[in-house]
Amino acid sequence: MHRRSFLRLIAGSVPVTNGGISTILASDAKRDLQSDILIVGSGVAGLAIADALSKAGMRVLVLESGGVAPDVRHQALSTVLDGGNGLPYNLQSAAQRCLGGSTVNWGGLCPRLSAADLRTRTSFGYGIDWPIAYQDVARYYCAAESWLRVGVDDHEREIPTCERRFDSPFARSARMLIDRLNSLGIERVHATRACADDRGAYAPLRLGRTVAPMMQTRSNVTILTDATVRRILVRKRGAVDGIVFRTSDGIERFARANVVVLCAGGVQNARLLLLSANASYPQGIGNDTGHVGRWFMEHPHRRFWLRLSRSIPPSELIGVDIPHWYDVRKQEGYGSLWVRVWLFDKPPAWARTDQAARANVLVDCLCEQEPDFQNVVGLDKEHADRLGDWLPTLRYRLGAREQSALAAMPNTVAPILDDLGRVVGEERLAFGAHLMGTTRMSRRPEDGVVDGNLKVHGMKNLYIAGASVFCTGGGVNPTLTLTALALRLADYLREHRRQLPA
Questions:
Q1: Other CB atoms within 10 A of residue 29 CB
Q2: Radius of gyration over alpha carbons of the chain, in Å?
Q3: Is this prediction's pTM over 0.90?
């Protein structure tokens, strides 16, 4: 077996280590794996749930398709084909197959959704209301911010202070820029919510280097890399028996668990449900009403690169978030608009482009995408990956609301552009690699895939976590909210552990 396949041994096996990475004895290779909780995917949602439940004493198994570090061969399994209308970008890069998932290269930006984002149908006439109240999410935001080490600006008056908190890495450096924007009549501005290290410096959290090794020390946690899940097995309607996965050396294995939680991202969560079609679920697990893969959402961006003309020296990276127009634009029919301004002496790694090389200001505008039934992840039954499983497709389009919002952005942010500098480049359309909505929450099975507790409708022990459960996406990065929902699910599973299938 590949020596990097196991980060933690199956209970009862004898450790054999090489360079700090544990492997498994050949005598154990033929055994089925058994756990209380089986989690597919080691990104933010998966590790948040695994961390919480393992601390509660439950036996946790995490299966990660990728390796300890990013690898081209693993990443090829994330290929997404055009299902019609053209892909918005190369989605293979949107979800990383490696320990820690997409935190291997994310920007660590963690704003909160607003209460209005969960009630767009009632308040604004589009989308669908979430089946849970905003407070159900908000009461986990503090825990999520602590877990992700998110720094918060004291000037966010509308947000209650958490008992345990980190200062924003931009709180002091952004003050001059905030004052300047306030002078332009832009009232709601605060330092960007982002991950910080122990020194208070901007440092996007890399879970594969931090949380995963810490969890490895617990005897009730097994993290298996190079383990690609291929099928969810259901022998009778209503309950998962286990999952089938393949290791990098071609061995096919079976894992049993009382509860299975899919945390594989917006495309792969839907793909696994569809690939697991059987006699009981001919359209795919959880897909009796045809919603699996539907309602895909992204965050379309429009970006303006400027050369600074004012005396605000960008001696370091400075970031501010501007929720000034957020609810106003929604009320005007455009959907939420989130504007972020960056000042830099050299662009951060995630923003290094030809245009960035000529600029030292980025005005980045994210807009909400209205959920659309025709934006769908499906399967291409003529093309398979190297394991023989059909590749996913995405049929995608921008709706009238998003197109209008994108067109209106230059006028909206004109005061900022006119005041701060000279535009030297513009991206009329970019995306956030935010894969949302394909297994959305709903009160009734007729309207979605999972219920308010993230359990797949009609299943006793199959749950889904991550941004794929979002009903609407708002206009902000989804990581903090999906972490809050993951911690909420962990609490639910812990509190109901005696009622879970044995």
A1: 15
A2: 22
A3: yes
